[in-house]
Amino acid sequence: MCAPRRIAKMRHMRILKWFSTVMALASASFCFGAGPQAAPKAVSAVPDTFRVQFVTSKGDFVIEVTKAWAPLGAARFHKLVSEKFFDGCRFFRVVPGFMVQFGINGDPQVAAAWQHRNIQDDPVKQSNTPGMITYAMAGPNTRTT
Fold this sequence. Notes:
alpha+beta; 3 helices; two-stranded antiparallel sheet
């Protein structure tokens, strides 16, 4: 089994649905940004599904989030979007044919404020297949932005 497939099956992968092809967006920049840090939004207050449109220099794409797949991850993503965390952020790592990475705010103060705001792992309910997004992590319960 090749490394990307083995990694994709690892338990720690948390999934949110991504409607566009990742490679068409390589090196694009987001049109979202950081806002004030409020108290975490309760999982119950997050819609069962919601869509977020990202506008980039390489074309727009929509992320559709299904809360049932990863309730804590969906709540964190909802909070980040609500607080405009992604405004002005860029894709910072592209591995052709595998993945594109984003989620670190370009403002060092905002990035530092979120760096240790970990969320607990959600039970795995989906596979990390093409067209899906996931949080990066450094071990159990280390997902952040």
